[in-house]
């Protein structure tokens, strides 16, 4: 892993701000309205992998908006990749010698079953100050914020020196093949700004902005299949070596196992900064872990918090189980899927070998069945990016702490990092941790996040493209 330095200075929490209020900036009502309108139209298009996938309709919706906003049709491409596609829109810069800036997102969403939701997930609703619907956070609103901001920049007469390429993949939530194809096509990019997710954090009690955490690294996604086979037999004649029982014992060992806690320069900088913002026991644990990743008390506290355990090392958890072939027969086969999020610096083969040791049973075979994933090092702590993201946040929330972080999940950034393109996640949306329903039920985002989100992008995109 590259050696990087924590270059950020962490400021004290500013005076309390009204919920989602931002600094004295020039309003952009046309861009704000367009971002919301486009997001609602995109949410209504069920862009879920499988039968009825409407990702192509999302691409056409976005393309139409971009052409209406001044982009040339010849500079917009929708390229098929397997069962999906990716989309690019190119804004040519004035200096062709400069490598392009890629503004990255994805058009697909995770499946959502209407019967489980309070509101239909694919019927967008604005209610009580929130935009509800699948993709409200992950990540159709972010997509439309980027589109509306680029159109606003063109409206204002901005001309980038560096070519800007807006790039949306079509299967980030599943196979991620279109993201890999995009990275292959744009492997000469100078930098990637991925606007996926919601990187701003609101206080749970007050709803006021607490801090902004951009990401320069992510963990490697991996799936491992555990398999136990057995001759089986009649259920009236039980035998000692039961495939389901053996698999259950292996899963129990994995559940109890903790991979070695560790840190890198990015996560250390995150814990040092976040510790100043988190009161009480959790904040103390963050500070202690940053100073000593072997601190057992700090490890215990952070491991007990679902939002923290993934930041201190590799995690592996059972996600699917299947076994047996008949109600009145001994199982001949039992399988389980173990999903791992691997800390940077470890290969999938290393974790597979470690899992096999944890299972401690030669009858349980561990096989890597990962699809659409590649291990990558962290992106460097680029001073130009750090300055740009800090300036953009402080433009709407003066003095708000801005800290680096590592994503526990996977994103299309990994494909660009595999081509050695510096790639960063910085979504301008702010939400409460308790209201983070990405991939979950009743996904929502505060409508009040739209205007400062546009202001953020209108600052950072020009800075990175000049």
Automatic annotation (TrEMBL):
SUPFAM superfamilies: Bacterial exopeptidase dimerisation domain, Zn-dependent exopeptidases. It comes from the Bacteria. Gene3D superfamilies: 1.10.150.900, 3.30.70.360, Zn peptidases. InterPro entries: Bact_exopeptidase_dim_dom, Pept_M20A, Peptidase_M20, Peptidase_M20_dimer. One of its GO terms (molecular function) is succinyl-diaminopimelate desuccinylase activity. Keywords: Hydrolase, Metal-binding, Protease, Signal, Zinc. Pfam families: M20_dimer, Peptidase_M20. Residues 1-23 form the signal peptide. Its EC number is 3.5.1.18. Residues 217-364 form the Peptidase M20 dimerisation domain. One of its GO terms (biological process) is proteolysis. PANTHER family: N-FATTY-ACYL-AMINO ACID SYNTHASE/HYDROLASE PM20D1, N-FATTY-ACYL-AMINO ACID SYNTHASE_HYDROLASE PM20D1. Belongs to the peptidase M20A family. This is Succinyl-diaminopimelate desuccinylase. It comes from Komagataeibacter europaeus (Gluconacetobacter europaeus).
């Amino acid at each position: 892993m590259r050696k990087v330095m924590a270059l950020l200075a962490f400021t004290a929490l500013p005076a309390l701000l009204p919920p989602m209020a931002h600094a004295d900036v020039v309003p952009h009502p046309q861009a704000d309205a367009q971002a919301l309108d486009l997001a609602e139209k995109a949410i209504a298009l069920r862009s879920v992998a499988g039968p009825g996938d409407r990702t192509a309709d999302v691409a056409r919706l976005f393309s139409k908006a971009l052409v209406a906003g001044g982009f040339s049709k010849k500079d917009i491409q929708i390229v098929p990749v397997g069962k999906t596609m990716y989309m690019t829109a190119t804004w040519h810069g004035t200096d062709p010698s400069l490598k392009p800036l890629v503004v990255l997102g994805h058009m697909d969403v995770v499946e959502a079953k209407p019967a489980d939701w309070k509101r239909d997930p694919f019927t967008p609703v604005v209610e009580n100050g929130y935009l509800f619907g699948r993709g409200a956070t992950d990540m159709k609103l972010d997509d439309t914020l980027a589109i509306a901001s680029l159109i606003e920049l063109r409206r204002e007469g901005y001309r980038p020196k560096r070519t800007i390429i807006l790039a949306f993949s079509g299967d980030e939530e599943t196979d991620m093949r279109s993201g890999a194809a995009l990275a292959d096509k744009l492997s000469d990019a100078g930098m990637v700004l991925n606007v996926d997710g919601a990187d701003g954090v609101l206080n749970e009690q007050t709803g006021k902005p607490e801090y902004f955490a951009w990401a320069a690294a992510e963990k490697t996604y991996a799936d491992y299949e555990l398999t136990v086979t057995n001759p089986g037999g009649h259920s009236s004649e039980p035998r000692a070596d039961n495939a389901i029982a053996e698999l259950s014992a292996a899963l129990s060992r994995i559940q109890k196992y903790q991979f070695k806690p560790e840190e890198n320069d990015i996560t250390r900088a995150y814990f040092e900064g976040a510790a100043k913002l988190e009161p009480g026991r959790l904040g103390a644990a963050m500070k202690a872990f940053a100073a000593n990743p072997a601190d057992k008390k700090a490890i215990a506290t952070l491991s007990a918090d679902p939002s923290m355990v993934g930041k201190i090392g590799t995690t592996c958890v059972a996600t699917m189980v299947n076994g047996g072939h008949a109600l009145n027969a001994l199982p001949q086969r039992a399988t389980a899927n173990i999903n791992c999020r691997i800390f940077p610096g470890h290969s999938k083969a290393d974790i597979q070998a470690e899992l096999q040791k944890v299972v401690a049973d030669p009858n349980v075979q561990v096989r890597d069945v990962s699809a659409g994933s590649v291990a990558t090092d962290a992106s460097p702590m680029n001073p130009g990016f750090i300055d740009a993201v800090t300036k953009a946040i402080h433009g709407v929330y003066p003095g708000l702490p801005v800290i680096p972080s590592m994503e526990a999940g996977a994103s299309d950034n990994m494909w660009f990092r595999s081509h050695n393109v510096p790639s960063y996640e910085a979504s301008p949306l702010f939400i409460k941790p308790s209201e983070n329903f990405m991939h979950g039920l009743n996904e929502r985002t505060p409508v009040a996040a739209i205007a400062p989100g546009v202001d953020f992008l209108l600052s950072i995109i020009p800075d990175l493209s000049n």
